[in-house]
TrEMBL record:
GO terms for cellular component: endomembrane system. It is found in: Endomembrane system. Residues 31-67 form the DUF1232 domain. Pfam families: DUF1232 (PF06803). This is DUF1232 domain-containing protein. The lineage of its organism: Bacteria, Bacillati, Bacillota, Bacilli, Bacillales. Its main location: membrane. Keywords: Membrane, Transmembrane, Transmembrane helix. The keyword Iron does not apply. It is a multi-pass membrane protein. The keyword Cell inner membrane does not apply. The chain crosses the membrane at residues 29-46, 52-73, 100-122.
Length: 126
């Protein structure tokens, strides 16, 4: 159980590293795009496979997120990663970052999805 907790803590720190790295100007655009996508997916309440589906629901958390982290870290220059690791440790001690832009984007997607479902249901019923 301690190994799982340590692994989860390490993943969380790596997500913070990516969060900091995608804001750094030394990171290539394609690495920024991947890092931002992984961070948004990891922090988002929307999953590729919903968690309520037995076993399969947690595959994205166990496989997809770590693979995205690993790939994004390979694309980011090592000196940037080292600087971001130090900042991420400090961040973990002080609390989560608040990214209102990404949060607003997730809310906007849910609102648009709700409107679309409403329109489709309205057209089906009429």
């Amino acid at each position: 159980m301690n190994k799982i907790k340590a692994w989860a803590k390490q993943l969380k720190q790596q997500i913070y590293v990516l969060y900091l790295a995608y804001k750094d100007e030394r990171v290539p655009w394609y690495a920024k795009l991947l890092a931002a996508s992984v961070v948004a997916y990891a922090f988002s309440p929307i999953d590729l496979i919903p968690d309520f589906i037995p076993i399969l629901g947690y595959i994205d958390d166990i496989i997809i997120v770590p693979l995205g982290i690993m790939l994004a870290l390979k694309l980011i220059p090592r000196e940037v990663i080292m600087e971001c690791e130090a900042k991420a440790e400090e961040m973990m001690l002080n609390g989560k970052p608040r990214n209102w832009v990404m949060g607003s984007l997730v809310i906007l997607i849910w609102i648009l999805l709700g409107i679309w479902v409403g329109i489709v249901l309205y057209e089906l019923l009429n």
